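Page 47, continued from p. 46.
Same chain as before, 105 aa.
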Amino acid sequence: MAQAANKPTTDDISEQLATLREDVAALTTTLRDLTRAEAQDAAKGAKRMAGKAREGVEHEYERLQKQAGDAVDHADALIREKPAMAMGIAAGVGLLVGLMLSRRS
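Result:
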C-alpha cells in the first residue's frame, strides 16, 4: 500500500507539465532578452570600431594633404629659384612620356 501512495496521478502529471511549460516560457524569454542584449552590444562595438577607423582615415588624409601641400610649396620655390633647371626637367619628363606612349602604339 505504500507504493500506491507514491504513484503519480494524472493531476500530478498535469501540474508538472504546466510547471514545465512555464519554465520553458521563462527560459525562452530569458534567451530572447540575452540574444537581444548581445546583438546590441555587438552593434555598439561595431559602431565604435567604425568610428575609430574613420578617425584614423581622416587623420591620415589630413597628414597626406599637408605633405602634398608642402611638396607643392617646395616645388614652387625651386621653380622660382631656378627656372631654367625646371624647364629642362619638364622637357625631359615630357620627352620620356612621349617615348613611352609612342612605344605602346
